[in-house]
């Protein structure tokens, strides 16, 4: 161990938590928390880019998931029950073309041009795309604040790396805290950006 290594271990402060990872049970409201935090930041004049996934229902039944680019408002399909090709996750097939051209592109662009990056979600469907993985890695390395949702039980090297970052904080969304979390997250991000 060098003197520098020893000194770094003795630092009286930790790195600011620049990467906030939201996890929790399916349906608990991770996307809602992320979306509300993004809206608070945008209302404060912060440029937040990236992607959000939303479920799409027809006649009360979920038929797929849509991707929304937060900067351009471009939309695409992440997965759909009637998607003809692509990797299968449950009853859905992943639309790699839209995931790459809308989702991964939105994250990569936000890493370059925005103040903060939002990613919803780093999960089983999205992880089929190498472009998505590279875009997420770019966001994590960008030194910009990142808010991302991670699938509660997905296992992937990218998720492990994100969770183990010294500048990452993992927040579990619950029914008890989900109403307060957007403001808490937004304030953490605003503090970093000042």
Low-confidence stretches: none
CATH architecture of the domain at 14-52 and 105-193: 3-Layer(aba) Sandwich
What is the CATH H-level superfamily of the domain at 14-52 and 105-193? P-loop containing nucleotide triphosphate hydrolases
Order of helices and strands: HEHEEEEEHEHEHEH
Number of helices: 6
Distance between the termini: 35 Å
The portion of residues forming beta strands comes to: 25-35%
Largest sheet: 9 strands, mixed
Within the CATH hierarchy, at the fold level, what is the topology of the domain at 14-52 and 105-193? Rossmann fold
Task: Indicate the structural class.
Answer: alpha/beta
Rg over CA atoms, rounded to whole Å, is: 17 Å
Net shape: globular
Query: Mean pLDDT score, rounded?
Result: 91
User: What is the β-strand count?
Assistant: 9
CATH class of the domain at 14-52 and 105-193 equals Alpha Beta
Explain what this protein looks like in three dimensions.
It is a single chain. The radius of gyration is 17 Å and the shape is globular. Strands 5-6-4-3-2-7-8-1-9 form a 9-stranded mixed sheet, with helices on both faces. The mean pLDDT is 91. A hairpin with a 2-residue loop joins β2 and β3 (61-69). α2 packs across α6 and α3 packs parallel to α4. 39% of the residues are buried. The protein has helices at 3-9, 30-43, 96-113, 130-141, 157-164, 181-193; strands at 19-23, 48-58, 61-69, 75-80, 88-89, 92-94, 116-122, 146-150, 168-172. With 194 residues, the chain is of the alpha/beta class. Helix content is 37%, strand content 27%. It has 6 helices and 9 strands, in the order αβαβββββαβαβαβα. The longest helix is centred in the middle third of the chain and has 18 residues, at 96-113. The chain has a domain at 14-52 and 105-193: Rossmann fold.
